[in-house]
């Protein structure tokens, strides 16, 4: 279902609210005006009733009465009724008026106002006042056609005024809404041009209101999206570069092996080299898959109780031929983590130290307050200035001070595994050397995660 434009919605809402207010005010004015007219009519009836009573007291009749208040044809009239309700006297042209027994009793008891739908001479609505006068009842009446016409005129004028006010207010509301939404339209138009222009931002009005804050938030979001897109482009470029090298070598080895007859030894060497490059491509693909799953929050974790010292000693034993590795971890220290993921993280940290460091490698663990810290330290040249803050970025390599192969994904995977366990990774200089560590909660909060691999 299509929605109305916001500007039109605001205008309609404003017009509806104003219509309700004007209707309420108009109703109050109409009722007050009607009540005031009736008070005026009632005051006139009391004056006429007093005159008729005075005339009857002086012995004069109503037939020859000359008082303008009593002889206005079709506007006012007067008559005198007996105690039984029979007409005794009346002004010229007075309509026949009868009172019920109940109305007569009330009139003999005191002044009584009565309404008649066809009580005037011309069958128009009339207002009557019956008052006692000795043994008689004096009835005076006034036609209400003038009052009804005045109310009808007021109603017509009020309706026209309401319509005019609504039209003017709606036009003003539409204009004001357009002014208020103009910055939004400017941001929308600019957003269309932002797509193909990096670094371009939405215009933000210089007022700290909802629209200004919206523009600032959208600009911050655009900056984050640009950073994410740039990071993604760098990632794809670096991944393509890393894949191109082993694939190129693999293709060259195959071409050389097929170019001319080779001895079995030469073919074996070519196949061995090709196998190494294929293994490199497989490792790179696996590393990229781990990082992709971590980005999507789908890196599978199957936590179990792990003896930290035994795990570190196992990693050191598998890499003892590559250098001197010393393990320092308290006996009995345990952590709840995914064994294969933790083993991968520790191996990557150790591999980074063996590739880029020098001297003895220290593999240690310590028990903190509800946390377990595992650290690898080397005694090499350390990280270049400012590099430790970027050590866990993908394809990050030091530009000086440390050398070695690798795709630059090892520490990025360490950070992804630490975050998947609810922990963190850190890198810093050690003077001499470098320290790389992960900190994991001693107790896992991922028991609900399925051990899918």
Model description:
The chain has 453 residues and is of the alpha+beta class. The chain folds into 3 domains: 6-148, Beta-Lactamase (2-Layer Sandwich); 210-295, Orthogonal Bundle (Helix Hairpins); 303-441, Heat Shock Protein 90. The protein contains 9 helices and 12 strands. The protein has helices spanning 6-58, 68-71, 101-109, 145-194, 210-259, 264-295, 308-318, 339-356, 410-420; strands at residues 76-81, 87-90, 112-116, 126-133, 136-143, 303-307, 325-328, 334-338, 361-367, 371-378, 424-429, 434-441. The strands form 3 sheets. A 5-stranded antiparallel β-sheet has the order 2-1-5-4-3, with helices on both faces. It has a 5-stranded mixed β-sheet with strand order 7-9-10-12-11. Strands 6-8 form a two-stranded antiparallel ribbon. Helix 6 (264-295) packs parallel to helix 9. The radius of gyration is 50 Å and the shape is rod-shaped. The chain starts with 5 loop residues before the first helix and ends in a 12-residue tail after the last strand. Residues 400-405 and 447-453 have low confidence and may be disordered.
Explain briefly what this protein structure is.
The protein is of the alpha+beta class and 453 residues long. Helix content is 53%, strand content 16%.
Question: How would the blueprint of this fold be written?
Answer:
Elements: H1 6-58, H2 68-71, E1 76-81, E2 87-90, H3 101-109, E3 112-116, E4 126-133, E5 136-143, H4 145-194, H5 210-259, H6 264-295, E6 303-307, H7 308-318, E7 325-328, E8 334-338, H8 339-356, E9 361-367, E10 371-378, H9 410-420, E11 424-429, E12 434-441
Parallel strand pairs: 7-9
Antiparallel strand pairs: 1-2, 1-5, 3-4, 4-5, 6-8, 9-10, 10-12, 11-12
